[in-house]
């Protein structure tokens, strides 16, 4: 009897350990849009250019922009898409909860797509830098802030699309999100400037979530067997 209780406690301890381990690993996935902003800033500071402020309002607008273009990723990984200028203030900003009077100047835009998922440093060199023209957008001295959005072409499948928007406004006074900076929750994709953990389009997030569920089920199953439920 004593032996049985010991091994039961051992299983409970192991179960908690596994759950703790998987929740830590899911945290480490972080937010790839934020990681891409870090790569952009590293590339700028190496050129002695000032860092750009990571603006959640601008990031969410970048996500809206690329969502409108999600069907337009071509075979050669270029995005052939030109949303009307008015959509920025009439659709994108309201969808994010950006306070309209704080809508500022957008001084640069880069979009790109790839058939497969890329980690942030690869996305930087292969998607954001197509040629010298986009590199000069990243190195432009006028910018003060940046926002990045990433989304899947279809929900959970198809090519990945990236969008980086640059602004040239006084820090923190433009693209302000309502509700004390929370804005409107986005159900899909990923954008920079917030603490929300996400992966581009959700692949890694869903994988970790599935692994978590499997471990929880196995753990519950073992507990039920040990307590003589079956
Ligand atoms: C990519 O494809 C589009 C149409 O699918 C074409 O207009 C464009 O010229 C192509 N770009 C390059 C660099 O091949
Ligand atoms: C996406 O591509 C389609 C077909 O080429 C075109 O009709 C549409 O206007 C494009 N979307 C945008 C937002 O430019
Ligand atoms: C930097 O961006 C501003 C605003 O878009 C533009 O007017 C200017 O020509 C750009 N400068 C360079 C060197 O590309
Ligand atoms: C910045 O990025 C460009 C394009 O990927 C690369 O060629 C260059 O070496 C990078 N600069 C630094 C200092 O990392
Ligand atoms: C791109 O820029 C690099 C360095 O700034 C230069 O050596 C190269 O010739 C440029 N390429 C084109 C196609 O302009
Ligand atoms: C802007 O906001 C960031 C983060 O909230 C903060 O670290 C920074 O000091 C602010 N900058 C200014 C100029 O207020």
UniProtKB/TrEMBL annotation:
InterPro entries: CAP_dom, CAP_sf. The chain crosses the membrane at residues 207-225. Keywords: Membrane, Signal, Transmembrane, Transmembrane helix. Pfam families: CAP. Residues 1-26 form the signal peptide. Residues 37-163 form the SCP domain. This is CAP superfamily protein.
